[in-house]
Amino acid sequence: MKYLISERIALSSPIGVFTYTLDRYSNFLFMDTPQIKSILEKIKTVKVAVYGDFCLDAYWIMDSRKSEISIETGLQAEAVEKHYYSPGGAANVVANLSALEPAQITVIGVVGDDIHGRELTAQLQKLGADTRSLFIQKEHFQTYAYLKRYIEGVEEPRIDFGVYNKRSEEINARILVGLTNALETHDAVIFNQQVVGSITNDSFIEKANALFEQYSDKIILVDSRHFNDRFSNVYRKVNDVEAAHLNGVQVEPRTMLPRATVLEYGQSLFAQSQKPVFVTCGARGITAFDAGGYYEHLGLQLTAQLDTVGAGDTVISAITLCLAAGISPNHAAQFANFAAAVTVQKLFITGTANGEEILAVSQDPNYIYQADLAENPRQAVYLPDSETELCDPSVLDKLGHIKYAVFDHDGTISTLRHGWEAIMEPVMMKAILGDSYDTIDAAGFKKVQRETQEFIHKTTGIQTIYQMEGLVNMVREAGYVPEDQILDKFQYKQIYNDALMELVNQRMAKLQAGELDWEDYTMKGAVAFLHELKARGVVMYLASGTDVDDVRHEATVLGYADLFDGGIYGALREYTKFSKKMIIERIIRDNNLNGNELAVFGDGPDEIREGRRSGGISIGITSNEIQRHGHNFDKRPRLVKAGAQLIIPDFSQYRKLVSLLFKEEAISATV
């Protein structure tokens, strides 16, 4: 649980005195595996009903080879390579419920007398749902269906069915009877409204509200896209923009509201209803509000390609099942956060999350820290007369005890491999597109390029082999390369490594020829900083995602290998036996360290995240590898999100940094 306490902080340090407002949080513990397993078992006893707009999502993957030319029209016919259908809207809520295996699921709603309605009903029954309250309206109603055509991996304009439906009074009355029965016999009801115009009669809303008042002791969770403000006596699941609207503030869709604003809106909604409220903020996670306060659950860093369609359905399903099983809003939100992290990684389908998948995500989550600060550099606070950004003021209480330090290599100390991203991108692009690399249209090429750049950006700092593992998945998902021509991760790594080493070897040759020296390939002040740490007895480790033999060789050539008395580590052929996480955990375990005795330095999110997770001090380097000094502000957002507590551009102010880290002059924080 997190409680917000705003304090006015005066900080005095070796580099100045300054004052600003700090938001402090109390510590809280995340659920462990036994707790999640317990929740999964309790969910199996729950009976839940779902009212809503039941939809069918249709996916047509078009074949670029086309079909015949129509004899009747003379027009070129399209060919469909494959097609499949999945539950959408409230039906996807049912699919998510079914994945968690509750005791009973009842659906309440309407479909048309058409092929889509029959397919949807069959799918709901296959999911184990009781469809006796899924009524058929024969006139003026088509089953809501959304046809999505993909041509060479690019989604074409959607084709919608049921846009101008009008539900009959008879169907409304039957739905209300179904809701009444569910409220009497089930543990919880989900009221899910997503389609524009799906409720066309005000009297239906009035009668539903009368039911909600009558059964006000029941768990009724409302997620309504267009009528949120019309319902009372309900729990709410809203996104941040919807929370703003319910507070009378109009903001544009997809606006990223500041965290403090979201907290204000959520607390206001709970104060009005006195029933739990859950506010989702996309990648920034979920916050639950109840009589005990509010509970923030940070979003998760995910390196895979993402598809957020249907994530809201996952959230409301997981939250409702938890609440119905007697789980607190705090833990319900955390459980739902893990569930959503599963489904957003499932592409080209409105995915679900089962218990095993949720457990897997919860084992070792990578959280997104301070998303607002990451995206808005105007909020940055710098220590006076310094280029050091203070991202997490609580770190000041931890300084002065450093005995061990872990350094990333490339981009943190060395610039020998500068430009690796520009080499990896075309390697990945050619792998993904195969023979289509030279012929694909500009839009398709740009789409793949954008996804490739995003993947490289997210995975900076991890072992190359894991990046190549991701590449294999991207090649397979894109569908341009026949299955029998897809290489494995080791083969793709070799192609990339050969291209990169050609560049590195050219630079090494200049060193060996005396045309350039070590200062031309190291970050400003980095080696001097290493010597300062060595003089203070700090045991240092070098840990890189690059192959270990290459790391050792490059550190030796640049002249600082001997400073790393803790060891030099890098990727191994048996790649599962090395990671920066393993190194950090081993240092802490073998030396029985407190977190504040370890500092981690790096320009990638991997080492920063592991340093923060371990309780250590994480210092991010926004290194400009071309100049070898100054900021590359493109690195800043990912370092802040990974949990960097301090950020520096380079080590040019290493004397000030040493003084800060070792508290060689007093640093105090007072309210």
UniProtKB/TrEMBL annotation:
Domain of life of the organism encoding this protein: Bacteria
UniProt xrefs under SUPFAM superfamilies: HAD-like, Ribokinase-like
GO MF assignments: heptose 7-phosphate kinase activity; heptose-1-phosphate adenylyltransferase activity
Start and end residues of each Carbohydrate kinase PfkB domain: 48-346
Claim: Transferase is one of the keywords in the record: yes
Organism per entry: Runella slithyformis (strain ATCC 29530 / DSM 19594 / LMG 11500 / NCIMB 11436 / LSU 4)
Annotated PROSITE patterns: PFKB_KINASES_2 (PS00584)
Record-linked InterPro entries: Carboh/pur_kinase_PfkB_CS (IPR002173), HAD-like_sf (IPR036412), HAD_sf (IPR023214), PfkB_dom (IPR011611), Ribokinase-like (IPR029056)
GO cellular component: cytosol
Protein name: PfkB domain protein
Keyword terms: Kinase, Transferase
